[in-house]
Amino acid sequence: MALPLPPGLVPTEVAFLCEMELVTVIPRQRLESIPLLSGATPTLRPPHRAELPLWLALLLKKQRRANILPPPWLHPDSLKDIINHETNEDPEAFSPPPPPLMRSDGRGGVRPYGQSSAELRPGDIVLSPPFLPSCTQEAPSGYLPYHWLEMSEMLLAHAADDIPNSPEVRTLLRDLQEVRAAKMRGSTVHLEGGDGVLNLRGVGAMELAESRGFVLGVVEGVRKLGASAEAGRREEEEEDRANGRGDESDEEMAF
Q1: Tell me, what's the pLDDT at 54?
Q2: What is d(CA 68, CA 49) in angstroms, rounded to the nearest whole number?
Q3: Cα 145 to Cα 129: distance, rounded to the nearest angstrom
Q4: Whole-angstrom distance, CA of residue 44 vs CA of residue 21
Q5: Does pLDDT of 195 surpass 60?
Q6: pLDDT in tens, 59-115
Q7: What are the distances in angstroms from CA 230 to CA 196, 233, 246?
Q8: What is the pLDDT of residues 90-103, one digit of tens each?
């Protein structure tokens, strides 16, 4: 008999999905296009930049055939701005997600990435991470993408020499992770009443996977407390009816 699977994605599955994120590389050797399930990769011609899936970029980095350019949000100045927003500008909420990436439509206008026009038409595909270039050189600075935590950990583990001031970046990431983890734990206060809503705008994929058990435990505890309080109230009403208090209270209300 198969064991029941936990709800949602576990951290290892989230890390696997993150490997499909596109990153910008500078090839050190010539490499022809490779046909993949997601489409053919661009032909690599040094020193021209190219966008590749993270798993392929890490493989070429290991073989010393390419260098990985860190996304703009992974630079120390960008991380400092995000930490300042998290701690000073809006200490209750998470930093907002990056704005939708726009591309030129060739006629002087712009259109969302992956769409044929500015307006959504039948047949257009609405892309979401990891199929958005939120970790390439086109990504905006000062915004954390959906896979920011696992992406930064992989780049620091396998391409730390390509990241400027990597020790400082590592320290800033640890501070940012602690601040956001404290916010995630503190946000469950809104669930204590039983009818609160947890605002998860700007929360990353790995943060959701790691906090899912804690949040679900809080929700389950609130549900049990509410059920026990309701059961106690019903028992008191039944005792009042059995003692005749219920009829007296009904008469008083009618009077």
Answers
A1: 95
A2: 10
A3: 8
A4: 18
A5: no
A6: 999 999 999 999 999 999 999 999 999 999 988 888 988 887 776 666 766 666 766
A7: 18, 5, 18
A8: 888 889 888 877 76
201, amino acid identity = R
* Confidence (pLDDT) at 100: 78
Tell me the per-residue pLDDT of 6-31, one tens digit each, with 9 for 90 and over: 667 888 989 999 999 999 999 999 99
Terminal Cα-to-Cα distance of the chain (whole angstroms):
63
Whole-number mean pLDDT of the chain? 82
Closest residue by Cα to residue 188 from 223, 218, 208, 210:
218
In the numeric block, which tokens belong to residue 67? 């260098």
Structure tokens at 200: 């998860």
pLDDT attached to residue 241: 76
Triad 144, 149, 155: Cα angle to 5° = 105
